[in-house]
Sequence to fold (666 residues):
Amino acid sequence: MKRELSVPGIAYGGDYNPEQWPEEVWAEDMRLMREAGVTMVSVGIFSWALLEPSEGAYDFSLLDRVLDLLHTHGIAADLATPTAAPPAWFFRAHPEALPVDKDGRGLSYGSRQTFCPSSPAYRKAALRMARALAGRYAEHPALAMWHVHNEYGCHNAECYCDESAAAFRRWLRARYADDLDALNDAWGTRFWSQWYYDWDEILPPRPTGAVPNPTHQLDWRRFCSDELLSLYEAEREVLREAAPAVPATTNFMVMYTFDALDYWRWAPKLDLVSNDHYLQSADPESEIDIALSGDLVRSLAGGPWLLMEHSTGAVNWQPVNRAKGPGELRRNALAHVARGADGIAYFQWRAAKAGAEQWHSAMLPHAGTDSRIWRDVVRLGADLKALAEVRGSVGTAEVAIVWDWNSRWAMELPSQPSAELHYQDLIRAWYEPLWRSGVAVDFVRPDADLSPYRLVLAPSLYLVDEAGAMNLTRFAEGGGTLAVGFHSGAVDENCHVRLGGYPGAFREALGVRTDELFPLLPGESVGLSGGGTGSLWSERVRPAGAEAVSSYTSGPLSGVPAVTRNSVGSGVSWYVATLPDPTTLAGLLDRIRTEAGVRPVRETAAGVEAVLRRGEDADYLFVINHTGRPTEVAVAPDAMELLTGKPVPGSVSVPAGEVAVVREPR
Fold:
């Protein structure tokens, strides 16, 4: 059964926490929400202590009034189960439910997500709370969506207590079909006398005297993701029993630093995929991270998705919390819409005056309505109303980048050839030139259907199983273009090195064989023929059918190929055995995608983003000008700019720092 959000158009709002304010403020909230164009708010996310003041005793009076008030004013509720922050009374009754960190320290309650994901007491209490909430509000007219928990794994992705150890063992027994010999083989426990003779001997990968077993650590990461997923599914089923037609979501965190959950496994379990995204203050071109994140979330969703949280201005949790510049709030939000978001929401509606997030920006800031943020919030509400017809349209791409959480986890484990390898840095290094060229990109699993694409890039696929490797190889053999980055295909799903030379699973498809790796030191570089340099990595590549496109001109491998091209089946494969400098990498990827027949969405000036969403009867071209200069972009002769409602036959002018959204009928 497909469950869709009933809120029309592009949903707009944020986290609403009226419990933090006296009730006389609520009427002003409703008036200002209507002024801003708010259509949906998330409520109840951190209200467990107020809703259940003691075990089994509920007080829904405040939430009753809030939901009734929202409905009266035509604002839908994304109603949360408040299970991300159990109350103090729960931990006094169940101290065993508190998490234990990797160093064996028991953590205290007093913030959020201070619970062990494997705690039976927590699961029982959370489901009891969800059942009570669902029973009371399943038929409430304000209810538009269930918001399950909040940011799973943000602060408690791993717990190392004995209860978690027992749950880990149960997960392992299921994974290895209760065959301890199979586990020993997968983990390579003959090394360092780690062989297990009894399941009870297995512990979480707690600190030990030397480097821990990599497969042990990888399975632990898989377990932790699955354990939290099981909590989501349990709550979702309780809600679904009470309200079968109401969609359920939970907010992902596809952000630069968060890597705790395998969202490819999570996404199919959600009726609507939603995401939280916050800018890194240290990133001078955060618009690229917004694009990368949006493309990844759209790919996870398989279509439109919801932006559940981002910030109107500064956050409160970075070393220096940068405010957004003029027009940045609008550009950020519409960039997410351009890449598939059918809803835009913020943390939070009204800036808090107390608590841990009191210095986090909000839709209604501390300064009130006489503020730039408020004026920008109202303007954005009008923009999103004007874009109602864009809802449901989808992105189109001829390029796919392979993204895999298992590979990320495995590559960033200790004892690699280089500790300088960082998965997301490598992905962004390859993504950025495509973004600058205006090329549309999807992200895919290694085993995904690749038939829609002309070009598939695997910048960093250290771990890949046989099915994934064969899928990528067959794509190239069948006429596609495949480009693979260094240290890919090196290990299988158990972190076992593929013998016979690198790049392991892709040797035959790439027509190369490497017999030795030469990682580069921080700050070290090697020259490349044709100009440019390589950093981070080099290796002794021996062509086995491939031609050298570029070679090292300095360092211990001078004269050895650094970039190769190979004809495979009716397609082409490329291997990039170093990290070229940005200009050189951009030139290489431009050559690869041009040969593959991939063109940009629209020709634009540097710093001007052009993104396309395709509807049933029209295309929607988003033009986002990140520069300080006006720009002109060619459009269809019968085009209409939706934000102004004016025809733009043949071209659209976009002032510096502004956005245009153009409907082009088909």
Residues 101 and 160 are 6 Å apart (CA to CA).
